[in-house]
Amino acid sequence: MMMSVDTDLMRVLADPVRLRIVTLLARETLCSTHLIEETGVRQTNLSNHLKLLREAGVVETEPCGRFTYYRLRHDVIASLAGQFAALAETARATAENNIKRSCP
């Protein structure tokens, strides 16, 4: 069975700033002020990155007074990791069984 990796999610995570945000949020729940300090990006750029991450379902928000905290959705990352694990297993089986398409 051919399994594909979620390419839309991969596009979202391929950006270095968004990957940095995800890495930071894996360690702790942070507000945008913390994320600006940690990433060095401007508020407007950070907001755009967070919007894409929210729309992709990678992060969720938690209002706290006048601040909004961001939390990584570990289930989404685990699902992506599972897709890569399945892809790696398919590649291993292909290599072990020397599966190749013959040329015409």
Describe the protein in words.
The chain has a three-stranded antiparallel beta sheet with strand order 1-3-2. It is built from five helices and three strands. It is α+β, with helices and mostly antiparallel strands and 104 residues long. The radius of gyration is 18 Å and the shape is elongated. It starts with 6 loop residues before the first helix and ends in an 8-residue tail after the last helix.
Distance between the termini: 24 Å
Proportion of strand residues: 5-15%
Quaternary form: single chain
SSE string: HHEHHEEH
Biggest sheet strand line-up? 1-3-2
Largest sheet: 3 strands, antiparallel
Whole-number radius of gyration? 18 Å
Number of helices: 5
What general outline do the C-alpha atoms trace? Answer: elongated
What's the β-strand tally?
3
Low-confidence stretches: none
Q: What is the helix fraction of residues, given as a range?
A: 55-70%
Structural class: alpha+beta
Mean pLDDT: 91
